[in-house]
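Note to self: keep these together.
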Amino acid sequence: MVELARKLPLPQRRFPASPVLLLLAAACIFLTVESLRSTIFAQLTVAGVATGVVYGSLALALVLIYRATEVINFAQGEMAMAMVYVAYQLTLWGLAYWEAFFLTLAIAFVFGVVTQRVFIRPVQGRSVIAVVIVTVGLFILIDGLVEWKWSANQRFMQAPFGNKIYHLGNVPIARQDLGTIVITLISVSALWAFFRFTKLGLGMRAGALRPAAARLVGVRTNALLAVGWGLAAVLGAVAGLMTEPAEYVLQPTLMQPVLLYAFAAAVLGGLESPGGALVGGIALGIFLNLLPSHSWGFVTSALELPVAFAALLVVLLIKPTGLFGHRTVRKV
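Structure:
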């Protein structure tokens, strides 16, 4: 793996264009100033960050798969939902919440690897459409299996963070929001460290960038791809387990709206940019959380999704590759 990383030229560090930096800086300044002026605004911003990191985590899982296969995994949300049910079942068997949490992450990794080996690998060499159809089929299959095993009735899990409220000055901050932010950012940071400092992570980066060259030097790209699916499943499980406390109930449709927002976040940040996926998720979470209270009643919860995609469309019309994406030049 180390030799591969040395032989294959990894991409030079790319920074977003200056207009994007200025836009992000202006947004941060605006949020800071308004949070200092308004307690409600500050509270909604923190809650938006908590929602946004969940979107960003699932968006990052989508980006991991897309960078390796150039295909969106439409079953990513249902895979995450299934892992939440696995954690629920583990708690029914007597495990404490956090014991079930970490065991579920291990199960999610195996689930992702097996999914790639059994369903994706047989069709990955054919066409993009074939892989897309398989992921849609997985969406339907997982949803049906979950309803068959646990039914569509609402279930309830133990609250991992409790209902305690902290106060920063006059700003009330829910412990649940803080816990969601911390757990999700730890998971994303661990993934970044894995790709940045480990031999396997460096090999996966090189294999994703130059698969043909990687195979020539003896790297098992199919095995690395399976590991990538496993890591994406782990990120999805984290997103699902952090979504359930905010929704208060567990049901088969838990992750379907989250997947739509995660897809929007991935496109907003750039489908080939892991960091962009996280930034896009946080930006989208804050935007959607502030929108109902700052739209003079024009935007209700029923219009949040259309408005979010309308804003996404405007951004893509200006910068089609997303905020952190870059144009790819192909030689013919």
